[in-house]
């Protein structure tokens, strides 16, 4: 790439506290030709506070494809474009993926890092490992949620959830993973009513039955192997396979290859059921 290579900036904006906006982000947004944003009304408030008067173009999930072609043309004409979303880092459960996928390699893409709810949350909750999976927004259908929790059974998994659905999702986790499954919930991070709770899924459900459950939420379900709930999960899965007449040996092989469960442990649990 040369100095003439078209330039696209991916710029993070605050997730609540408006002061979490980097000096570099503000400078770039002031100096580009176009800011692509999800909702111009939401962004206009923030940009006005920082004296950013750059022209706004809408870029959201319903016009991503069409806009990508238009932005590619403008970039190749020498215009500088910055992409922002309503809050946090674009492309992280937010529009931008189509633009980056299409233009990567043809255009210089620079990310201006800043707030991101997943990362903010991960930095403030207890963890036993560095590993984590990010599931974005969970599917709404219960058996599809079950598939996500099965897939990520052995890794701490963060996901975004709406306050209206959180209790239902926690009930599903309790059913799929057991009542002692460890959970952490981050609500309204960086805002006035910021709250972070950690405990068993049962404790968290009880807490939110009697406390306000409003605002924006990010949630972690800890890996079963890190919480001692692995036995519960194994037993549930063994019972299902037994009901389909699989032998103890086959069950140990299947659960080892699907979830990495220890074969001998599964076998011993299976013959005891
Ligand atoms: N791109 C954003 C980021 O970098 O975090 C996420 C965008 S996604 C459309 C919005 C979701 O992120 C919210 O529904 C909520 O689940 C989570 N979220 C955003 N801000 C948050 C905050 N201040 N506290 C907790 N969760 C937040």
Which molecules other than protein and nucleic acid are bound? S-adenosylmethionine
Q: What strand line-up does the widest sheet have? A: 3-2-4-1-5
- Beta-strand percentage range: 15-25%
H and E order: EHEHEHEHEHEHEHEEHEHHHH
What best-fitting shape do the alpha-carbon axes yield?
elongated
Question: How widely separated are the two ends?
Answer: 63 Å
Rg over CA atoms, rounded to whole Å, is 23 Å
Largest sheet: 5 strands, parallel
Number of helices: 12
Q: Helix amount, in percent?
A: 40-55%
Low-confidence stretches: none
Give average pLDDT, whole number.
92
Count the beta strands: 10
Category from helices, strands and their pairing:
alpha/beta
Can you offer a commentary on this structure?
- This protein is an alpha/beta fold and 273 residues long.
- It has twelve helices and ten strands.
- The strands form two sheets. It has a five-stranded parallel beta sheet with strand order 3-2-4-1-5, sandwiched between helices. It has a five-stranded mixed beta sheet with strand order 6-7-10-8-9.
- Helix 10 packs across helix 11 (248-259).
- The longest helix is centred in the middle third of the chain and has 15 residues, at 163-177.
- 31% of the residues are buried.
- The mean pLDDT is 92.
- The structure holds S-adenosylmethionine.
Task: Please outline the helices and strands.
Elements: E1 7-11, H1 23-31, E2 34-37, H2 40-49, E3 55-58, H3 64-76, E4 81-83, H4 97-103, E5 108-112, H5 117-122, E6 133-137, H6 142-151, E7 157-161, H7 163-177, E8 182-187, E9 195-200, H8 201-210, E10 217-221, H9 224-227, H10 230-243, H11 248-259, H12 263-271
Helix pairs in contact: 3-4, 6-7, 7-8, 10-11, 11-12
Bound molecules: S-adenosylmethionine.
